[in-house]
Structures are given as structure tokens and as C-alpha cells.
Design goal:
By secondary structure, the protein is α/β, with parallel strands linked by helices. 42% of the residues lie in helices and 10% in strands. The protein folds into two domains: 85 residues, DNA polymerase beta, N-terminal domain-like (DNA polymerase, domain 1); 244 residues, TIM Barrel, CATH 3.20.20. Strand 5, helix 11 and strand 6 form a beta-alpha-beta unit. The longest helix is centred in the middle third of the chain and has 18 residues.
């Protein structure tokens, strides 16, 4: 599950640059360094046939936009038939991100919460899709942000309409075997309404609803807000329900205060999955709330919340938690085959 960009293509400079970026992303390396490798790979893809070898021979690779000393060295090593040391060093630590994930991770068929550069992700839709295919997914839901989250470049009705056409084009190009699903991570507004038009929500295949603002709202008001969102007929998944941050560059943040039993009862009643968000800085819901949701009879979705291709492997982290906490695989919706998933989501 962790061998995207395999060794049979190891000396293709573009594949090697992508692989390096992927391995750096899954280990949460510095984003500026990752962007350098992805940017160099994108530049090389645009070169006419033969120009790459000619430039390498003349020593002019660094004249290309986005190609620096380190990425040029990787390209030169590839063209000389040598595996770059940078790649070997990263591959040495490329196993599962955590032990104990396999019993659930091996059953996951897809990911219901991912982002692209249409909102606050770092990579194009096509790059996210190709990586999802390479790590073995059957489907992935594209869930860029909704309009009110302006800091994340949320999608207006017009931009989301355009994105849905791109999704159709991607699926037509793939020709089956993998499906990119139309989705959104829609902001839950202060009154529990969803931050997108009813018409657009109805056109989507999976809707993840999340709170991103006023996280310190009064307990009773937050409970009403979340229950109202869960009851919305288009809501499928309740995203990172407490909004907490336990580590990471953005600092820590406490859990939102709400009536857990009431919210999870609403999820169970309305067939809405509780997301086990796999981002290491979130680990949301906390362990004790996963237990409350299980007791309530909830479904679950283990999602990466990936904002870059390598982060799709964060599913290891959520899967390990599900194993540890005893979440039954049959209640994890993204273990289901595509047709069952779609039947549930539109049921």
C-alpha cells in the first residue's frame, strides 16, 4: 500500500521527483522543500523530447524554471543510471507510518476527505488522483472547502460547478477501475445550516460537514448547531467533530464543547458517519469520544484530510487508532465497495 511510483520506473527523473515529494509529504517534511521537487517534476514534463538529456549534458538544467541544485542533481543521477541518494534515504523509512494499522488499513477502499489546489491543498486534482490509484484506492472523494472559508480559498457555486466538470473529465480519461467522487467539505454555519446552495449539495456524491469557526461557542449553541447540520439530508460525514489540535505548526487548540451523546445520537439516527480524522495534529475525535460514538451505534469514516498526495497515507494513523479502539470494520463506510458507499450516501 506504500509503494507509489515503483522501482520499475526508478530512473525516470519525473517519477523519481514525484516519489521523493510523496515520501517527504507523508513524513510531514518542510513544505517549501516538497514544493521544489514537485515543481521541478512539473517543469520536466513540459520539455520537448530530447531536451532534458541535452541540458544535462551541457550542464544547463538549473536554467530551467523551478530546477535548483538539489533537483538538478537528482535528474543527473537518474540520467546516469544511478539511484539518487536522496531517494534511497527516504525509501529506507518508507514503511507504514505506525504499527498496528494493517487489520483496518488493508480493508479501506478509499478516502472520503481530500483537498486539491482548488482550495487549500498543494497539488492539482490529477496529482491527487494518480497517487490515490498508486496506493491502491478504488475511489477518492474530492472535498475542497466551501465559500465562507475564504482563508482556504473556498469554492463558490461557480467554481464548484467548474470543478464538477473537471471531475467528469478525469473520470472519462481514467475509463473505469477508479472513481473520483464529487464532494465538498462544507462549513457548518453558526445556525447549523450548510455553506453551499441546496442545488449544488444535491449534485454531490459525498458531503463532509465540519465546523471551522467560532469553535469556542457555548455548549448548548454548539450542540444545536452540530445536530442541525447532521440532520441536513445531504450530510454524509461529520468532519473532525471537536476541532481540536494536539500538535503541529499551528499550535494546539482545545476541543469544542458540545453534548457528545446528543450529537452522536443524531449521527446514528440520520446515518451520518463520524469521521476519524487521520491528520496527526488532529487525532479527532479523542479516544473517549470514539467510544461514545460506538455506543451510540454510529458509522465511521477513516479519512486522511490530505492536502498533498503523500498525506493520503495518513490513513495508516487513523486505521491504527480504529484497531486500538475496537471500531468494527463493518461500521467503517470506506471499507465498503463503491456501489454500497454511493447507495448509503444518497440513501
Amino acid at each position: 500500500m506504500h509503494t507509489a511510483h515503483g522501482s520499475d520506473r526508478a530512473l525516470d527523473p519525473v517519477a523519481v521527483l514525484r516519489r521523493i515529494a510523496f515520501l517527504m509529504e507523508r513524513r510531514q517534511a518542510d513544505s517549501y522543500r516538497i514544493k521544489a521537487y514537485r515543481g521541478a517534476g512539473a517543469t520536466l514534463l513540459m520539455l520537448p523530447s530530447g531536451e532534458l538529456a541535452e541540458r544535462a549534458a551541457r550542464g544547463t538544467l538549473r536554467e530551467l524554471p523551478g530546477v535548483g541544485a538539489k533537483t538538478a542533481a537528482v535528474v543527473e543521477e537518474c540520467l546516469a543510471g544511478r539511484r539518487p541518494r536522496t531517494l534511497d534515504d527516504l525509501e529506507a523509512g518508507a514503511g507504514p507510518l505506525v504499527e498496528g494499522a494493517a487489520p483496518i488499513r488493508s480493508l479501506l477502499r478509499g478516502d472520503l476527505h481530500t483537498h486539491s489546489d482548488w482550495s487549500d491543498g498543494g497539488s492539482p486534482i490529477e496529482e491527487m488522483v494518480s497517487t490515490a490509484i498508486e496506493i491502491g484506492h478504488d475511489y477518492t472523494v474530492l472535498t475542497d472547502h466551501s465559500p465562507r472559508l475564504t482563508i482556504a480559498n473556498g469554492l463558490s457555486v461557480e467554481r464548484l460547478t467548474e470543478q464538477l466538470e473537471v471531475v467528469d473529465a478525469v473520470n472519462a480519461h481514467l475509463g473505469g477501475g477508479f472513481r473520483l467522487l464529487k464532494g465538498i467539505e462544507v462549513d457548518i454555519l453558526d445556525d447549523g445550516a450548510l455553506d453551499q446552495s441546496e442545488e449544488m449539495l444535491g449534485r454531490l456524491e459525498v458531503v463532509v460537514a465540519s465546523v471551522h469557526s467560532k469553535l469556542r461557542m457555548d455548549r448548548a449553541a454548539m450542540t444545536r448547531r452540530m445536530v442541525a447540520a447532521v440532520r441536513h439530508p445531504e450530510t454524509n460525514v461529520l468532519g473532525h467533530c471537536t476541532g481540536r489540535m494536539v500538535t503541529g505548526g499551528r499550535g494546539t487548540r482545545p476541543e469544542s464543547d458540545f453534548d457528545h451523546a446528543a450529537v452522536f445520537a443524531a449521527c446514528a439516527d440520520h446515518d451520518v458517519a463520524v469521521e476519524i480524522n487521520s491528520r496527526p495534529e488532529r487525532r479527532d475525535p479523542p479516544d473517549e469520544l470514539v467510544a461514545v460514538a460506538m455506543e451510540a451505534g454510529c458509522l465511521f469514516s477513516i479519512d486522511s484530510d490530505a492536502h498533498a498526495p503523500g498525506q493520503l497515507d495518513f490513513l495508516d494513523l487513523g486505521s491504527a487508532r480504529a484497531v486500538e479502539l475496537g471500531v468494527p470494520a463493518k461500521r467503517i463506510v470506506n471499507t465498503w465497495p463503491l456501489e454500497r458507499l454511493l447507495c448509503w450516501a444518497k440513501g
